[in-house]
Amino acid sequence: MSNIREQLLAKTAGIKATDARKPDATRRAARTETAPGMAGALAAAQLRVQELEANGTPSELPVSELTPNPWQPRRVFNEAKLAELAESIREVGLMQPIVARRVGDSYQIVAGERRWRAHKMLGAEMIRAVMIECTDQDMAVLALVENVSRDDLTDYEISASIRRSEQEFPDRKRMAEALGMSRAGLYRYFAFESLPDFIRKSLDLQPTLLGGHAAQDVVATLKKTGEDGARAASEIWPDVVNGDLPQGKYAASIAMLAAKRRSNGDIGSARSIEKFFSGREQAGNITRDIGSFTVKIKTAMLTDEQEREIREVIGRLFSTQPKSH
């Protein structure tokens, strides 16, 4: 199999992009701290969609019979922005049809999931579409590289999509070629698989906590530091979650604490950390070690009534003033 990106670019060399979306600079700056450049693959994917659209068949499809691209990396969509898009479609109509392919008795979205979701918001029964023929491999590549330039897609979400797409490629070398990245860049995404369970569970809720470079550094550090590093990682992780420790310093902090433990002969087994949540978001944690018992609660998660109740409990258990002798 030859380089897939080169094939796509060669087939579509004469087509001018009509809907290339420039990523918002502010959103890109706020993204997770790493993501290998995929601009070439993105350009090839956009050209590929345009080529397929040019040879496709205009149609009108039932909204209820469409399903998202199964390789779509994004799992959470901004409801406010979807509502804005829905209102725009309600006022002026759908300016650009979605792109879809037939799979069995139903249809899969190749491009345009946000437009489809906006139609669902409006309660629309039908949506304009261009029907194309598209392979599973095309679907995997298009879904991933198209979304990398969108707002707020994290390295962790990209890594999950890459893992889902892996079976569509004969090996990781061909996969890297298709996605427009080096093999080193691809393997950086696979580093998330080697993170401890407690980190990946946090990333499921807050995928912006670690970028690809930070994840790779953590995995390398844990391999070097063994059990001491694993304990240190568990103890320090709440500081990353709470925003007290930048993700880029997490691996170095693990190494420092593990080294300190080894030099002091401290096995660190007396410390425990328990997280608690409000809905899906972590509200705080309880840390207990040899010298202290600490409860941390995010101010934004605490109501005035809850604060009053907590203070009452503390007041019943302890005096707010030292007793005189």
TrEMBL record:
It comes from the Bacteria. GO terms for molecular function: DNA binding. GO terms for biological process: chromosome segregation. Residues 59-148 form the ParB-like N-terminal domain. InterPro entries: Chromosome_partition/occlusion (IPR050336), ParB/RepB/Spo0J (IPR004437), ParB/Sulfiredoxin_sf (IPR036086), ParB_N (IPR003115). Residues 14-35 are annotated as: Disordered. Gene3D superfamilies: 1.10.10.2830, 3.90.1530.30. Pfam families: ParB_N. Residues 18-31 have a biased composition (Basic and acidic residues). Belongs to the ParB family. This is Chromosome (Plasmid) partitioning protein ParB. It comes from Candidatus Burkholderia verschuerenii.
